[in-house]
Design goal:
heterodimer, A: alpha+beta, Ubiquitin-like (UB roll), 2 domains, five-stranded mixed sheet, three-stranded antiparallel sheet, 25% helix, B: five-stranded mixed sheet, four-stranded mixed sheet, 16 strands, globular
Chain lengths: 239, 473
């Protein structure tokens, strides 16, 4: 039997808001037009709290918590824009930029990149840590798509969309820490993957130029994401 | 006492360089060299990238002539796809390339070199610049700025932006031309033609005051190399390579640009980052050839447009055989602007110029591709090899300024010997040595595949290498 959904009331940045008990701080903030930056999060995919851009402060809690996976609670007082948070968020971005080779000027999604626009929105003007300039491969073995590990931020949107929406689970992550890398099947060239259906969902959810379609000029690769809410809605209705 | 003069950095050129002039015990010039002091390594950093990124990637070599790299790279990529691009796409690329020629030549003539012509080689460096031109001859300064603007504006109308557009794609261009933009372009041409003809008339008259420079500015026999059409007319986008000697005789003709490696070798010297291309059948270092506007006008049998043909006939009458003085690069540049504008007008009036089929679509079909085009400064070669997935495994870029490296070195030695006397070094002498380099309008950012704008440094060295005197700007 369905239990009645309980509503919680809380404060975000001093504003009184309310949300269902199964909703996250991020969801409630967005419903109320409060901006919390995200990179790994994408509506329609399971949130995982990986990028740490959505960290918020909660009164009485010493740790910073990711808004995308923290559920609302009665009487919570959430702060989303403190100086400390803004500093941390910029630091997260600086680390992302320094970790691989993000060369915007010659990137295929220059001007349409979530990492790039997030850096602009959050006012990241410099990268204060040294760049690592790792030597990373480009896999262009797939007939239609390319994966460029130089631009990957390990958000795992590709892994989740492939698993949760397409159901193929071609993508996964190998390695640990800074050596982690997204892989197709058992780390074989994408073009040789037996599970990939070539649906292109991973390419369209990728926030950067790590996954892209062949044949379009640099900086004209727009991501089409309309499919995600439709597909999720259809599946929920059938359930 | 023997010494070396160093001019570092060289001013009013594109990129970073210095000149050293070696004097012997009597203060007589013994040797002079131009050292390109920047290094970039584009050929290496392109490796592992997908070929389709190459136009945009190599365009970043230079902010002044990204269009030239886009064109040569686009053509090399067409070769990798093994396609013939749609006719309209080719015409649009031609207009794009010529618009670039107009703006780049205008920059060289008006912004960088006209201060020498207008104010004199010996004028105070504080006024011998574009600001001095604005004060002395505001009409000319306005003309130069306007002409360059028209060229840049055409690039923007075609490609969406002036610097580093991503409009050239393997197989053609990304967007067709709109009727509105076509009209705007056509409307801007008459003014540009007037400016150019005014400049040609002025320069023909002014040149007479520079007979000493004409005689000594890299004025020596050499070969000339560049693209011409199958029928020997002026060509900047496609065509075949031709080589003429100093007497104006064609010594190699109808060379398929894909065979460039049989004719052009590249030598390396330890004192500069710029390589020394040479004409292989003659060998290094004797195989000196020049490229660029002067070379192109020496190679052709005609320009192919009415006003330019008229101006060209007058130009070729300057000397018997090929025109040898590099001072005339400036003159040749103006004639090419005239040609470029006339040719753009012709192309814009072609009935299929607004056609919307502008890109041939294909995957990589060949493992090696060569693209050759004429950049404002001369022949530009992009040569790529790819693996089965289309990733670059090897790239070779030969840039116009590189071809002229041997000639530039020989040219500054000639000018230094004539103008520089060790016991009384004057700024005007050194400016003349720099002005030799400016004739070639070198783009060192491109040719070392490097960055920046070009300041100058001259060093005077003793036979033991000790720096005795320096001029630095």
């Amino acid at each position: 039997m369905n239990q009645p959904v309980r509503v919680k009331t809380l404060k975000i940045d001093g504003r009184d808001v309310s949300g269902r008990e199964d909703e996250t701080i991020l969801e409630v903030a967005r419903q109320n037009g409060i901006f919390i930056p995200t990179l790994c999060n994408l509506e329609g995919l399971t949130p995982i709290g990986a990028c740490r851009l959505c960290l918020v402060e909660i009164k009485g809690v010493s740790r910073l918590l990711p808004a995308c996976v923290t559920r609302v609670e009665e009487g919570m007082e959430v702060y989303t824009q403190s100086e400390r948070l803004q500093k941390y968020r910029r630091m997260v971005l600086e680390l992302l930029f320094s970790e691989r080779n993000h060369i915007c000027s010659v990137c295929v999604v220059n001007g349409h990149c979530e990492l790039q626009s997030m850096a602009q929105i959050l006012g990241m003007t410099h990268v204060s840590v040294p760049y690592r300039f790792p030597r990373l491969p480009v896999d262009a073995s797939h007939e239609r798509f390319v994966v460029d590990h130089n631009r990957c931020i390990l958000c795992t949107r590709c892994v989740r969309v492939c698993d949760e929406i397409e159901g193929a689970h071609t993508w996964d992550v190998m390695g640990r820490g800074i050596d982690s890398r997204v892989i197709t099947d058992l780390n074989q060239p994408w073009g040789e993957s037996e599970t990939c259906t070539s649906c292109g969902k991973c390419v369209n959810v990728c926030p950067t130029g790590a996954l892209f379609e062949k044949g379009k000029p640099v900086s004209e690769r727009l991501k089409k994401r309309q499919f995600l809410p439709y597909l999720t809605m259809m599946r929920e209705e059938r359930r | 006492m023997a010494q070396t003069i160093t001019i570092d950095p060289i001013t009013r050129i594109e990129g970073h360089a210095k000149i050293t002039i070696q004097l012997d015990e009597q203060g007589i010039v013994r040797d002079a060299r131009i050292h390109i002091t920047q290094f970039r390594g584009f050929e290496k950093l392109c490796e592992g990238r997908r070929f389709s990124e190459m136009p945009a990637l190599t365009a970043r070599i230079c902010g002044i002539c990204p269009v030239s790299h886009l064109i040569a790279s686009g053509k090399a990529c067409d070769a990798l796809l093994a396609v013939r691009i749609p006719e309209t796409a080719e015409k649009l690329r031609r207009i794009f390339n010529l618009a670039q020629l107009v703006q780049s030549h205008a920059l060289s003539f008006f912004h960088l070199s006209s201060p020498d012509f207008l104010l004199g080689m010996d004028a105070d460096p504080a006024v011998r610049n574009l600001v001095g031109v604005i004060q002395t001859n505001p009409q000319m300064a306005r003309d130069g700025i306007r002409l360059r603007q028209i060229g840049q504006q055409m690039i923007e109308w075609l490609a969406g932006k002036r610097i580093h557009p991503s409009w050239i794609v393997p197989g053609g261009v990304a967007q067709p031309l709109s009727a509105e933009k076509r009209e705007q372009m056509l409307a801007s041409i008459p003014e540009a033609l007037d400016i150019t003809q005014r400049a040609i008339a002025w320069f023909k008259n002014t040149m007479t005051q520079f007979s000493e420079e004409i005689q000594t500015f890299a004025n020596f026999p050499s070969l000339f190399l560049g693209l011409v059409t199958e029928t020997g007319a002026l060509e900047h986008y496609d065509g075949v390579l031709r080589v003429v000697d100093s007497a104006g005789n064609v010594i190699a003709d109808k060379i398929d640009p894909d065979d460039y490696e049989h004719y052009i070798g590249e030598a390396v010297e330890p004192w500069t980052y710029l390589k020394f291309p040479y004409y292989k059948p003659i060998g290094y270092p004797e195989g000196v050839y020049r490229v660029g506007p002067l070379a192109r006008l020496n190679l052709i049998d005609r320009c192919g447009t009415p006003r330019a043909d008229e101006a060209w006939a007058e130009f070729r009458a300057l000397e018997r055989g090929a025109v040898l003085s590099s001072f005339y690069y400036h003159y040749a540049r103006l004639i090419e602007i005239l040609y470029g504008l006339e040719r753009i007008q012709q192309l814009l009036n072609e009935p299929d110029i607004l056609d919307t089929r502008v890109q041939a679509v294909a995957g990589p079909n060949r493992s090696e591709g060569i693209g050759v085009a004429e950049a404002p400064r001369g022949t530009l070669i992009h040569h790529y090899r790819i693996d089965k997935d289309g990733l670059i495994t090897w790239a070779n870029l030969i840039i116009a300024t590189g071809h002229n490296n041997l000639a530039m070195n020989r040219g500054i030695l000639q000018a230094a010997k004539h103008f520089v006397k060790g016991d009384q070094i004057q700024e005007g002498m050194l400016n003349r040595v720099e002005a030799v380099i400016r004739c070639f309008d070198p783009c060192l950012s491109c040719s070392t595949h490097a960055v920046g704008q070009m300041p100058l440094h001259i060093q005077l060295l003793s036979p033991t290498g000790e720096v005795l005197d320096e001029v630095r700007r």
